[in-house]
Specification:
Blueprint: E1 4-6, H1 11-21, E2 23-27, H2 32-48, E3 61-64, H3 67-70, H4 72-79, H5 82-92, E4 94-100, E5 103-109, E6 112-121, E7 155-160, E8 172-173, E9 192-193, E10 201-205, E11 210-211, E12 221-229, H6 245-249, H7 253-259
Parallel strand pairs: 1-2
Antiparallel strand pairs: 2-10, 3-6, 4-5, 6-12, 7-10, 7-12, 8-9, 8-11
Helix pairs in contact: 2-4
Length: 296
């Protein structure tokens, strides 16, 4: 069974469930209105998507990439939701103590958006291969009976825009598989369906085995999917390379940081040895001079 926790519950309840099972269902995460409008925002891109020719997706699945730029609701409400961001910071923040001469200094790096897309699984689509999403980061896994902090390099959020069932391809998961070592393969008979009511969402760790399921229904099942990684990791998707500065200026400070427009302390991710957010300021304010990033 997958634990289901209402969005109003304390953040510690979600963290505890994630440590135990590798995922948690967040009940009442989003309103019907926001879900419907978010689908309207991405529908033109889903309609224009071409069938996938490899094994990653079935040809019946449609996708919308560059999701944060194409859906304001996903960007500012779902991705920016306090529960998802607080959970991501808990598992992905990295804090270290370093010395300059004999002076200790503590630095914390915050998560970055790793990827964001909408996947709409169409009728007759076949299941994905069972996988861990942290494979792209070459993550290694050691078998453990208890959760070990610092092992995970991804925290994901899945927000379907409709009710999901076994018939319409509810995501399949293996609770507890985030504690398995790399020598242990997953099997189909271990999967369970994470069925969701409309308005529910799933938060999961990148080390959890899961897959998109068969769609036995005659309807399309759209879902917004987002992952964050530690601020010192390379992002899976780099859509911000296509965003204009004027676009990014309209995003919240949180989203700007998660895209990489704020350098990671002490000195990672800079332009001209400055935190890149100077590019988002008015032209008269961009000549801020030079100083140590870690003293900013």
């Amino acid at each position: 069974m997958v634990e289901r926790i209402d969005v109003t519950e304390p953040i510690d309840n979600f963290i505890t469930a994630l440590k135990k099972d590798g995922l948690v269902i967040v009940k009442n995460f989003a309103s019907y209105e926001d879900l419907d409008n978010s689908l309207k925002e991405v529908q033109p891109y889903l309609d224009n998507d071409k069938p996938w020719e490899g094994k990653l997706f079935p040809p019946e699945t449609k996708r919308c990439f560059r999701l944060l730029a194409r859906s304001k609701i996903v960007r500012e409400k779902f991705f920016s939701h306090p529960i998802y961001q607080e959970v991501s910071e808990y598992f992905l923040n990295r804090t270290t103590t370093n010395y300059y001469d004999d002076k200790p200094t503590v630095y914390t790096t915050y998560p970055l958006l790793s990827m964001a897309m909408t996947m709409a699984i169409g009728p007759n689509a076949k299941a994905q291969r069972i996988h861990r999403d942290d494979k792209n980061h070459h993550a290694t896994h050691v078998k453990s009976n208890e959760y070990v902090m610092g092992n995970d390099v991804l925290v994901g959020l899945m927000v379907p825009t409709c009710k999901t069932t076994v018939e319409n391809a509810a995501t399949q998961v293996i609770p507890g598989s985030h504690l398995w070592g790399d020598e242990r393969p997953p099997y189909r008979d271990e999967l369970i369906s994470a069925e969701l009511e409309k308005g529910d969402a799933v938060i999961l760790l990148g080390s959890l085995y899961h897959c998109g399921a068969n769609n036995y229904s005659d309807t399309i099942r759209p879902m917004h999917i987002l992952f964050q990684c530690p601020g010192v990791y390379r992002q899976e998707e780099v859509p911000w390379l296509t965003y204009t500065v004027d676009q990014v200026k309209t995003y919240s400070k949180l989203v700007q940081q998660r895209l990489g427009y704020v350098s990671s302390a002490p000195n990672l991710g800079w332009v001209d040895l400055k935190s890149p957010d100077f590019l988002l300021k008015d032209e008269k304010d961009t000549d801020i001079g030079h100083k140590d990033l870690d003293e900013a």
